[in-house]
Design goal:
Blueprint lengths: L1 H16 L3 H5 L1 H93 L5 H47 L1
Helix pairs in contact: 1-3, 3-4
């Protein structure tokens, strides 16, 4: 924009200088040339100041946009971290509850077994085997539940690790 103004001023000046020599020498022409030069200078200064103001405003707007984007990103990362921690805590609580249930169930089965064996020792061998099988199945069920809970914790930890890597990669 500044180059165009210089070209315009140069064109105006060359045309004015092409006027007959008589006119150049006259006072009117001198005044005219002074006014044209003054106007061109004023226009050039105005354009330069406007361009500078536009550039400053553009830089300020860009800085505000960057701060906003950074704030959104940082808040999103913090939210993801919070959710991952909550999920990890929940999975640990579920694992602990599963272990407590398994222990309680095993104690119940043992007490029941001991009671039956105390009352009916040999005629109920078939039932004894059935109870052993039931206890084994129950133990396997509890172990499977614990395994699933551990896998859930591991999957959550893996997802959290991947989120951290993604966030780390995105911040680079």
């Amino acid at each position: 924009m500044h180059t165009n103004l210089t070209e315009i001023m140069s064109t105006v000046y060359s045309r004015v200088s092409q006027l007959p020599v008589k006119m150049k020498e006259s006072k009117k022409m001198a005044k005219y040339q002074d006014k044209v030069s003054e106007a061109a200078s004023s226009l050039s200064k105005s354009v330069s100041e406007a361009s500078e103001a536009i550039a400053k405003n553009a830089v300020a707007a860009q800085e505000l946009n960057m701060k906003f984007a950074q704030g959104v990103f940082e808040n999103g990362v913090e939210l993801l971290k919070s959710h991952a921690e909550s999920t990890r805590t929940l999975m640990q609580a579920l694992t602990e509850q599963s272990q407590k249930r398994q222990e309680a169930f095993q104690a119940l089965v043992r007490e029941t077994w001991d009671t039956y064996m105390g009352v009916f020792p040999s005629p109920f061998r078939y039932y004894e085997q059935t109870l052993e099988t039931a206890e084994s199945i129950a133990r396997q069920g509890v172990e499977t539940a614990q395994k699933i809970a551990r896998q859930g914790v591991e999957a959550t930890q893996k997802a959290t690790h991947q989120e951290k890597q993604t966030v780390h990669s995105a911040t680079k």
